[in-house]
Write a structure and sequence with these properties.
single chain, alpha/beta, Protein-Tyrosine Phosphatase, Chain A, 4-stranded antiparallel beta sheet
Length: about 220
């Protein structure tokens, strides 16, 4: 039987596709991160412009691929959130916007929650989990469908959904990651988020053990 560590090792080495993203750090420096085999290689962006901006991942290509994690739980990029035809096709009722610098486009058509989260390894994404989980549960209990999106649909939004599965279905990280990765193959949370998700799994497992001890 494979241990959790073996499962995670297997996912990171064999299933994570190479990813290349442009990131603007909090200091305004622009870098390019290239992912391969769970390693990240960082170089300065040759197209770097003068003047500071806030940190976020830039994705200038159109990406209208929706990851169907569950029929009512969807994952995508900001492009999906701005395409009303696709949103209607998937019967979206709620939109959780965790992108940076992306406004809600159809406020009269959908129920929104907006949290501006920076796609940086040092961002404490776990601090956003309770609000996100409550909103996702609200959509589920209302028999709706919720789209969770960030800018590129690669790091922040997948991390939120992975954590939600760990929380709501008591899955381990490896299983939750596999479900989300299968739904949207491009997902690749940044290394800081990956570390936080592993710790969140351990914390959730301890809490479950405590509850079981109290009920025995």
């Amino acid at each position: 039987m494979h241990s959790l560590g073996d499962e995670i090792k297997g996912f990171s080495k064999n299933r994570l596709k190479k990813q290349c993203t442009r990131v603007t750090t909090l200091s305004g420096k622009r870098i390019i991160e290239t992912w391969k085999d769970s390693l990240v290689h960082v170089v300065d962006d040759p197209d770097q412009q003068d003047g500071p901006t806030c940190g976020y991942v830039q994705d200038l290509s159109m990406d209208l691929q929706i990851g169907v994690v569950k029929p009512w739980l969807l994952l995508g990029s900001q492009d999906v959130a701005q395409d009303q035809d696709i949103l209607k096709k998937y019967k979206v009722t709620h939109i959780l916007n965790v992108a940076y610098g992306v406004e809600n486009v159809f406020p009269d058509e959908f129920t929104y929650k907006k949290l501006s989260i920076l796609d940086l390894p040092e961002t404490d994404i776990t601090s956003y989990f309770p609000e996100c989980f409550d909103f996702i549960e609200e959509a589920r209990l209302q028999n709706g469908a919720v789209l969770v999106h960030c800018n590129a649909g690669v790091s922040r939004a997948p991390a939120i959904i992975i954590a939600y599965l760990i929380h709501s279905e008591k899955l381990n990280f490896a299983r939750a990651f596999s479900i989300v990765k299968n739904a949207r193959p491009s997902v690749c949370p940044n290394p800081g988020f990956m570390e936080q998700l592993h710790k969140y799994q351990d914390c959730s497992r301890r809490q479950t053990d405590v509850i079981h001890e109290k009920t025995d």
